[in-house]
Amino acid sequence: MAPPTRIVLGVDGWRGAWVAASVEVGSPGARLLRWHVGRFADLPLAAAHVVGVDVPIGQPTTGRRTCDLLARSRLPGAAARVFLTPPRGAFQAATLAEANRLLRAAGESAISAQTFALRAAVAEVAAWAADPRVEEVHPELSFAALAGRPLPPKRSARGVAARIAALAGWLDVVAALAEAPPGVPVDDALDALACAWTAHRVDGRAADLLGGDPDPDGRPMRIAV
């Protein structure tokens, strides 16, 4: 008898919302069920055994998250692709200027406008942080684990080709991309699929869980690979 199938969801941020890939995993392999675009709460979270999402889940009171530092160590030559999650107070500020004023007053490093722009996405997923099925994933780490090395930049032709090749042993990537929602860039679609791959590893208890120190609410801050 074939083992029962399991559904995992890989989620990547796109244009102030999310693009997600629902993937059914079983024998003989994985297949895309469908794509979804929308707010995090409107994604088919209830149907998934594990949800892998590319966004920080949990912020430290001070300093840096251990999981971010460990993630950077896994990307030699490309460590900057993992941004360092700032202390919680930075995302509670109303403006970037206020955030950086608070950070500097506390002896912390300033953050970029790109990092500050993530605060809405962080807050959206934080509402689901208590759900044990929701795991933080970083696609660059997923692809490095698949390929055995950090890959070329994701928006380059070589980077796209390498990512398709890395995922090809898991599911039919070209067929999945052919069904992607109109307008979704190829790198975001591939990142969502990579998040689904790691979600499958979490579901099978085969993932590496980097970090684990608790956030101010007691939830482990970790990145699944």
Question: Keywords, please?
Answer:
single chain, 225 residues, alpha/beta, Nucleotidyltransferase, domain 5, 5-stranded mixed beta sheet, two-stranded antiparallel sheet, 9 helices, 7 strands, 35% helix
Major β-sheet profile: 5 strands, mixed
Rg over CA atoms, rounded to whole Å, is 17 Å
Low-confidence stretches: none
CATH topology title of the domain at 6-58 and 127-210: Nucleotidyltransferase, domain 5
H/E element sequence: EEEEHHHHHEHHHHEE
**Bulk shape:** globular
Portion in helices: 25-40%
Can you tell me the CATH class of the domain at 6-58 and 127-210?
Alpha Beta
The CATH superfamily of the domain at 6-58 and 127-210 turns out to be: Ribonuclease H-like superfamily/Ribonuclease H
What's the gist of this structure?
With 225 residues, the protein is of the alpha/beta class. It has 9 helices and 7 strands, in the order E-E-E-E-H-H-H-H-H-E-H-H-H-H-E-E.
What can you see in these coordinates?
The protein has 225 residues and is an alpha/beta fold. The chain has a domain at 6-58 and 127-210: Ribonuclease H-like superfamily/Ribonuclease H (Nucleotidyltransferase, domain 5), CATH 3.30.420. 35% of the residues lie in helices and 20% in strands. The protein has helices at residues 66-73, 88-92, 96-105, 113-116, 119-126, 139-147, 157-167, 173-178, 186-203, and strands at residues 6-14, 17-25, 30-38, 50-53, 134-136, 209-214, 220-224. The strands form two sheets. Strands 3-2-1-4-5 form a five-stranded mixed beta sheet. The model has no long low-confidence stretch (mean pLDDT 95).
